[in-house]
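Protocol step 4 of 6: record predicted structures for both targets in the notebook before any analysis. Target 1:
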Amino acid sequence: MTQDRRTLYPEIEPYETGMLEVGDGHSIYWEKVGTPGAKPAVFLHGGPGAGCSPGQRRQFDPELYDVLLFDQRGCGRSTPFASLADNTTWHIVRDMEKLREMCGHDRWLVFGGSWGSTLSLSYAQTHPERVSEMVLRGIFLGRQIELDWLCTYGASELYPEEWDAFVGHVDEDRQDDLLEAYRDLLDDADPEVRKAAAAAWNRWEGVTVTLLPEEDTISHMADGENAVATARIENHYFRNGCFLEEGQLLDDAHKLAGIPGVIVQGRHDCCTPPRSAWDLKQVWPQVDLQIVPDGGHLYTEPGITDGLVRASDRFAGKQA
């Protein structure tokens, strides 16, 4: 029943913050929330390029969890800001291990949504012995079919007016390869050109992640202070296939055997449609796939929040 749905935990401030030098000239911002010494967890934000937000801390019972959140390379408060140098999936996986060692955890729960699910799976398949459980949302496997859905054909059929605006920002003779065309605009010497391209790029993504029209969310994504960085980093990852071999995360899913997991997937997620969650379930049969019938992409939607909070409670041994 929708009236019984769980909501986010109350607002919480970090009990510790810091910067960790991880090599290659990068320094990672991190913060810890909850109870020191409680069940360890790591939270992976989306994007790529978005950075962490205060609301993301609230998906865990602070009395039962000790949660590390961090801004990935080039994101948020990490430095150098918006840098694409030495910024790949596998650099971030290595950063996670350095953060785990810094925290002194032997294993931790890995929690990530959207691009955060891609990183969660990449990390867990590289270091399965370091993962106690996984909570994932809006599965994105970095396959060409998923990139095409967003940037070639798919979501375009659901939001034709927004798609035409997204494509129309690029010169007509460049519209056959939007990723490369936007890369050039986002790297343009003129800051106004970069800003306009970022606004168009981020608005298109903002439209696909909102189940119902949320102009405030879309506008913040398009014009926020991190808009150019978010667009540049995301474009960088998409142009490089998220630095994954085609189908890699499905091919290596056998490495997840023995790791308990929950996937919370919105039925009407237009950014990361349910097909990828379903495909992952076929090769990771023990995962609990929960498709939310009235859910989209964002963790703040009522049905998605309910599933995520219940999953984190469950793995902390808290009864519903």
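Target 2:
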Amino acid sequence: MRQKGKSAPELGQLRIIGGSHRGRKLTFPALDGVRPTPDRVRETLFNWLMPIFPGPRCLDVFCGSGALGLEALSRGAADVTFIDQSPVIASHLKTQIQLLRADNANVANADALSWLRAASPDKPWEVVFLDPPFRKELLAPALQLLVERKLLSTDAYVYIEAEAELNPLPLPTGWTLSRHKTAGQVQYALCLARQTG
């Protein structure tokens, strides 16, 4: 084992809570600011999304541990695209996806807003997970880019995790808040992203 140079980051652990990989434990680099969506919140979210699973195309922006996208894969997403600017996270996530033998997932190591500005998918996404670093003014521009770049299918669902004090959520025109809860310092919401124009 190498003793010199930069040591590898400590690994945290997350558990897939439903679907074909239910109970499977995966790891993620426990870097500063990386906080997997808690099991209870994930369970609530996927109960909300149950009517459209399996089958949707999913985008996990600011993916961090990848907990949301990995859960979506387990529950039958058609495909999942993960975006994160950390090369350590992106590389590790590719390894975890290989462990799941998920050939319908891909990982982009990129700044999320820059990636959204340049994105031109073959088909629009039906579910988007948005869990940006808190208090960095990233949520509103990410939401606007989803609309401006026409990256969403008609009546797509967008899941948002944000700091509890962000009120109101900066939803684009025409979007509706389908579900909303607060847990301590965090709020989470599922929005119906009706496309206009």
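Step 5 preliminary note on target 2. The beta strands are 11-15, 25-29, 57-61, 79-84, 105-109, 125-130, 152-163, 176-183, 186-193. The chain is about 25% helix and 30% strand.
Proceed to step 6 after PI sign-off.
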